[in-house]
Design a protein that fits this description.
By secondary structure, the protein is mainly alpha-helical. 81% of the residues lie in helices and 0% in strands. The longest helix has 21 residues. The radius of gyration is 18 Å and the shape is globular.
Length: 257
């Protein structure tokens, strides 16, 4: 629900109820898996963190939660925490930090994912691809271009199996790839196609991200007015998702354009 663009406010309420039920039955692991989602929702929305029960006190910090998950060899939990960290850092444009996480953990998780593919891995690969293309544009390091291309390959495979869920993601990765290699006509088309697909398939969070990346692309080309149009659409989508803090950040960017 978090990745599909469900209302963050409603999702947070549902998660609190779920975690309380799990706590009553002494089911700790599901709660530990949801802590990074609680944290991400709070950071995106600007609301206070809640939903932590007494039996998971001390695990509110993602790093400690991740360390304990590795100690227990709970790779699924590790994947959840790492993916949420990549997503949150990417959305808040902390790309250097997101890139460090990708470099540190992607190989390990890909290895385990090859044995047992997890749903969360799809989003790790998608967002890692977005991180990779940004890092390539900054560093021109071949590692990042190869990482981005691998993400496109995976998303193309999944799009062939389920167009509804994966088409917009594949189109956005393609747009970022064409931006990275200087094919601006194809990049322009790719951003528009990804936005349309995300809207038609009701992935409002990914519609927001596609608009925001389209805005940065146009800004890089000196098209300020067009960039502002994309940015305003991104703000509306982030607000609809419930990511009010992120929306406020973009409003400040518009004021400085």
């Amino acid at each position: 629900a978090f990745f599909s663009g469900s209302s963050l406010t409603s999702l947070n309420k549902d998660m609190v109820i779920f975690c309380r039920q799990m706590s009553r039955h002494n089911q700790i692991r599901p709660h530990l898996c949801l802590i990074p989602v609680f944290n991400a929702i709070a950071n995106l929305s600007g609301e206070s963190k809640n939903g932590f029960c007494d039996n998971v006190q001390g695990y509110e910090d993602n790093e400690k939660n991740l360390s304990k998950a590795f100690e227990k060899k709970d790779i699924s939990r590790c994947d959840i925490i790492i993916t949420i960290q990549i997503v949150e850092n990417f959305i808040f444009r902390r790309i250097d930090l997101a890139g460090k996480i990708v470099r540190q953990y992607q190989g390990l998780l890909d290895l385990h994912g090859g044995v047992q593919m997890r749903f969360i891995s799809i989003y790790r690969i998608f967002y890692s691809g977005l991180v990779a293309f940004h890092c390539f544009r900054v560093t021109q390091e071949q590692y990042w271009l190869d990482r981005g291309r691998e993400a496109i390959k995976d998303l193309q495979t999944w799009t062939n199996e389920c167009k509804w869920n994966f088409e917009n993601k594949m189109l956005l990765l393609n747009a970022e790839y064409y931006f990275s290699v200087g094919d601006f006509d194809k990049a322009t088309e790719g951003y528009h196609l990804s936005i349309t697909s995300a809207r038609n398939h009701r992935f409002v969070c990914e519609e927001a991200i596609a608009n925001e990346l389209g805005a940065y692309f146009q800004l890089e080309r000196g098209r300020v007015d067009l960039s502002m149009c994309f940015m305003k659409q991104a703000i509306e989508c982030y607000q609809s998702w419930g990511a009010l803090k992120k929306a406020e950040i973009l409003k400040h960017i518009i004021q400085n354009l």
